[in-house]
Amino acid sequence: MSKLFSLSGKNCLVTGASKGMGKAMAMALAEHGARIVISSRKIDQLEATAEEINSIVGEKVAFPFVANAGRKEDLENLVNCCHEKIGEIDVLVGNAGVNPHFGPMSDISDAAFDKTIGTNVRSNHWLAQMVAPDMVKRRGGSIMITASVGAFIPSGELGTYNISKLAVIGLIRNLATEYGPMGVRANAICPAIIKTDFAKALWDDEKKAAEEIKRIPLGRLGEPEDLKGLAVFLASDASSYITGQALTVCGGGYMWR
User: Fold this and answer.
1) Structural domains of the chain, count
2) Is 71 a member of any domain?
3) CA 157 from centre of chain
4) How do the pLDDT tens digits run along the chain, 257 residues long?
5) Residue 241 known to be catalytic
6) Structural domain contains residue 39
7) In this structure, what CATH number is given to the domain that contains residue 80?
8) Mapping DSSP to helix (H, G, I), strand (E, B) and coil, where does residue 108 land?
9) CB-based contacts of 17, cutoff 8 Å, min separation 6
10) Is there a domain that residue 94 lies in?
11) Residue 43 burial (CB count, 10 A)
């Protein structure tokens, strides 16, 4: 059997992993042989997710750790937990994100603006700084950060969020440039509307959802499970010559972006 997509022996850190896309990606990584530390802000959801993953895999490979992605000290403790529980980190999935403001940018408060940029961009910069030494030491590794197709378009309701996701792509490109010579890859995952609690305001309205589906060649909105294959691909040797890219998961709705 081909080992192209095998993650056996790989140690992964996944933030924003208690539900939705993060949970699906964490599940896929574990199913393909990785050991993982999963993080979010709510311990009950984290523990339930870790238990579910371990039950499916048949052994204890997932370890929960509570951390607020917007706090540097929390992230430092998270990385220390990884080192204690699973060892040096081979794969980082930076999936934690926030969107505290839905509406025009003219109405956003300074606090909401700072929280959006801080959690979506700066926290992933911090995490990359913290885990890259593990990858450089081992002359290989994969960093993937969740951006959004919103990075490619303006929006009257999600302007600051979209700005933060475009900045994520900029961060990824610089990480790819800086760490590529040391064998470390970095890529952005850009989902369109995925049917998660986080994006519920965008798909829960049947009329709006129907309008969105009309322009998607595959004729449906995304599901969290649609992220599983890409996460495994980017974490594995199958993507060994792919770095600095913004990969869309959109059913074809943004194929020309």
Assistant:
1) 1
2) yes
3) 22
4) 578 999 999 999 999 999 999 999 999 999 999 999 999 999 999 999 999 999 999 999 999 999 999 999 999 999 999 999 999 999 999 999 999 999 999 999 999 999 999 999 999 999 999 999 999 999 999 999 999 999 999 999 999 999 999 999 999 999 999 999 999 999 999 999 898 877 666 666 778 888 889 989 999 999 999 999 999 999 999 999 999 999 999 999 998 65
5) no
6) yes
7) 3.40.50.720
8) coil
9) 23, 25, 26, 36, 38, 39, 40, 46, 49, 93, 95
10) yes
11) 12
Burial call 142-167: b when 16+ CB within 10 Å, e when fewer: bbbbbbbbbbbeeeeebbbbbbbbbb
Burial of 174 (0-12, 13-18, 19+ CB in 10 A): middle
CA–CA gap between residue 248 and residue 257 (Å, rounded):
9
Q: Which domain holds residue 32?
A: 11-249
How far apart are alpha carbons 93 and 51 in whole angstroms? 20
Cβ-contact 37, 118 below 8 angstroms: no
Contacts of 89 (CB under 8 A, 6+ apart): 11, 12, 13, 79, 82, 83, 131, 134, 135, 141
Question: 11 by DSSP, 3-state: which?
Answer: strand
The tokens of 252 are what? 């074809």
User: Residues near 121 by Cβ (< 8 Å), separated by ≥ 6?
Assistant: 164, 167, 168, 171
- Name the nearest CA neighbour of 80 among 96, 99, 63: 63
| Domain-embedded: residue 254 | no
Number of H helices, E strands in the chain: 9, 7
> Catalytic pick from 161, 179, 241, 254?
161
